[in-house]
Amino acid sequence: MKKNPPELSGKEKQVSSWDETHFGKMGSWYINRTFFFDVHPPLGKMLIALSGKLTGYNGTYPFEKPGDKYNGTRYEGMRIFCTTLGALIVPITFYLDPILMFFMTASVLGMVKVTKNTEEDRSFSGIWWFWLLFTGLMLACTISVKFVGLFVVLLVGLHTISDLWNVLGNLSKPVIFTVKQLIARAIALIAWPALVYMFFFYIHLEILNRSGNGDGFYSSAFQSKLIGNSLYNASMPRYVAYGAVVTIKNHKTGGGYLHSHFHLYPKGAGARQQQITTYTHKDENNKWRVKYYNKDVNPDDEVDILRNGQLVRLEHVPTRRNLHSHPEQAPLTKKHYQVTGYGENGTGDANDVWKVIIVGGRENERVETVTTSLLFIHYLQNCALTTSGKQLPKWGFEQQEVTCNPNLRDSSAQWNVEDNEFDRREYSSGLSH
Questions:
Q1: Cβ neighbours of residue 104 under 8 Å, at least 6 residues apart?
Q2: What is the pLDDT of residue 232?
Q3: Averaging pLDDT over each range in 177-191, 200-214, 249-263, which range is the top one?
Q4: Residue 56 per-residue DSSP state
Q5: What residues form the membrane-spanning segments (predicted)?
Q6: How far is CA 410 from CA 387, 414, 415, in A?
Q7: What digits encode the pLDDT tens for the residues 212-247?
Q8: Which end of the chain is more exposed for a tag (fewer CB within 10 A), N or C?
Q9: What tens digit of pLDDT does each residue of 396-431 get?
Q10: Of all helices (H) and strands (E), which one includes residue 403?
């Protein structure tokens, strides 16, 4: 006689679903105050984290893949929270994004209520102001969950224009009435949502005060405020000396670290020399040694600080090839010159020489770690080291293209030294932070 399989217990049935795996992980990061980078604004994830925190979830479940057992994890509060929001609108929207759909629906409700009260001659009454401010609040919440909420902002905006047109066409009202309507809508549907939107990001940044996997997308100064980051309360040297090993970060939003690796540019992408890219994550291949342009650094000599206007060579530490440029087209940006790694064991040629310029700096001013904005101008080609922002193909591991731009005013040509390693005791004790 064939036996039926044993019935699963309640705990064995508790497994994570697809969206719980994705957003639950972010909820854990909020609870643990671990910084992360995400393409969407923060409100939705913060609400999930808040519901989990209030119902006993401690932020330790890994949320690795859908179907993983919860094994007693207090996940119920987060699931009930999202389900409740989904239940407040048409049930089928539960299969989409309940938080986003809730705020979108509430925005439309507020829009309709404002129009109804305006048509019933209750403009500027308490209930009219309530629904107008409510609409602005819901618009801010919508756009704070996902940028697709812009479509609802557009809908409410067009509807508001229609409302104002009808108000203007009401000849029983003076023109000043229309002006007041316009000012009220501007305050409640533009200024008020903008303030709320910024407030959500303020909360986001206050909560996420620990270093996480999104650090590299942000500036060195911002990273220095994250607990656990290598720059947080760092005791690295204040000034950059010849012989120091540094990492160099681009100032462009989302800009990465100057990076190289053993792989060469392929045929058809300029000279077949070592690739130079930017990489948004911290890595050993981001390290460069600051050298004199015409001689080696002697460790027995007095410490020499890099200054504005001086010529240098930058040697990639893992591969021992120098940062180099020449009049070959860049692989993607054809109006720029190619930047490569060149030479053997730190020895290259005259195309490895770069002039260091401090942005807005004084003559002979010293280069400081983190705070000094720098340009690297190629000595022979008179072009600025920059990142084009373009993603290289798979041969470049989809990292970003680095070029040398003849336009020295390129806004993406500004860099700063982030990490600064120099082990001379007299240097670190006398000149460090």
A1: 142, 149, 152
A2: 66
A3: 177-191
A4: T
A5: none
A6: 9, 8, 12
A7: 777 767 777 777 777 777 666 666 788 999 999 999
A8: N
A9: 999 999 999 999 999 899 999 988 998 764 443 344
A10: strand 400-405
Cα(287)–Cα(316) distance, integer angstroms: 6
More confident position, 231 or 395:
395
Question: At which residue do the structure tokens 């990061």 appear?
Answer: 29
Q: Which two tokens stand for residue 167?
A: 């108000």
Cα–Cα distance for residue pair 172/119, rounded to 1 Å: 13
Chain centroid offset of residue 46 CA? 17
Q: Specify whether the CB–CB gap between 281 and 316 falls below 8 A.
A: no
- The values of phi and psi at residue 301, to 5°, are -75, 165
Alpha-helix residue ranges (DSSP H) falling in 55-189:
76-87, 98-119, 126-145, 150-169, 175-186
Is 83:77 a contact under the CB 8 Å cutoff?
no
What phi and psi, each to the nearest 5 degrees, are found at residue 183? -65, -45
Side chain identity at 391, as an amino acid letter? Q
Mark 331-358 as b/e (b = at least 16 C-beta within 10 Å). bbbeebbbbbbbbeebebeebbbbbbbb
Q: Which residues are within 8 A (CB) of 43 and not within 5 positions of it... i.e. 6 or more apart?
A: 99, 141, 144, 145, 200
**CB burial class (10 A; 0-12, 13-18, 19+) of residue 416?**
buried
Please tell me the predicted confidence (pLDDT) of residue 82.
Answer: 85
Which pair of tokens denotes residue 147? 């940028």
Burial of 126 (0-12, 13-18, 19+ CB in 10 A): exposed
The helix/strand/coil state of 267 is coil
Query: Tokens for 291?
Result: 């050298």
Q: What angle do CA 278, 315, 394 make, to 5 degrees?
A: 30
Q: What fold is seen in the domain 244-421?
A: Trefoil (Acidic Fibroblast Growth Factor, subunit A) (2.80.10)
Beta bridge partners of residue 168, listed in sequence order: none
State if pTM tops 0.90. Answer: no
- How many whole angstroms separate alpha carbon 330 and alpha carbon 403? 6
Cβ 152 vs Cβ 140: under 8 Å: no
Q: State both tokens at 285.
A: 């291949």
The pLDDT of residue 227: 78
Neighbours of 141 (CB within 10 A): 25
